[in-house]
Amino acid sequence: MNEEEFNDEVPQEGLPIPEIFKNSDTKGYITHCIQCDYELLKGDRSYMIEKVFKRYPNLDSTQVLFEYGMCSVCYEKMKDSLSAESMQNLSNYMMNNMDFSAMQQRIEENPEDPEKWMSHCMIHGTPKEEMTEYQVAASFKGDRLMTNFMPPYMIGGMALEELNGLLSKETKEDMDGFIDQHFGIPPELRKDFILI
Predict the structure, then answer these.
(1) Tell me, what DSSP letter sits at residue 130?
(2) According to the lineage, what is the superkingdom (predicted)?
């Protein structure tokens, strides 16, 4: 067996990037880190993608308010810049409120379809169809969705309000600055969104 044949038999780690995590305008991959412009698809750094959605049920329409990819180096710097109080509050909230068993059940029922894993808010269990605001996030490496650390997840508007209430004034100002710098979203549209 030559080397090429052997490499073809090695299974790729992770899953293909789901459509929900692709660029909403181009329908292609999100290719660069929003902070340092690092080329995310090179595959030598992990990265995360976060997208924020707003549904307009009367118009039967869902709009992406913002989306971005961030390499692991910039993500760690951003996390380190959050106040210790905010980090502790967020960590406690997630550990005490995440419904891991419901998420695990959705994964087991649809092992090859990560979009179905995000059909409900991972905190309150609200179905996506019943929410007007929600965020999704996941980890990636190269052109693969990584599930070994944290599966892709969705958090609905009610949980986002609760999380926002746990942030220090300093952290809220930092997050507002990030959103202003990159997206220019009016304050009334981003009042409860946080970077997760």
Answers:
(1) G
(2) Bacteria
The structural domain count of the chain equals 1
The first and second tokens of residue 123, run together, are 């905190």
pTM: 0.84
Q: What are the pLDDT digits (tens) for 117-145?
A: 999 999 999 999 999 999 999 999 999 99
CA distance readout (Å), 53 to 91, 131, 189 = 23, 10, 11
List, for residues 59-105, the tens digit of each pLDDT value.
Answer: 888 999 889 999 999 999 988 888 888 888 888 998 999 998 999 99
Domain that holds residue 101: 27-185
In this structure, the number of other CB atoms found within 10 A of the CB of residue 78 comes to: 15
Asked, for residue 190, whether it belongs to a domain, the answer is no
169 by Cβ neighbours in 10 Å (0-12 / 13-18 / 19+) ranks as: exposed
State the Cα–Cα distance between residues 108 and 117, nearest whole angstrom.
9
Residue 181 lies in a domain: yes
Contact yes or no for 124/159 (Cβ under 8 A): yes
Q: Does 167 reside within a domain?
A: yes
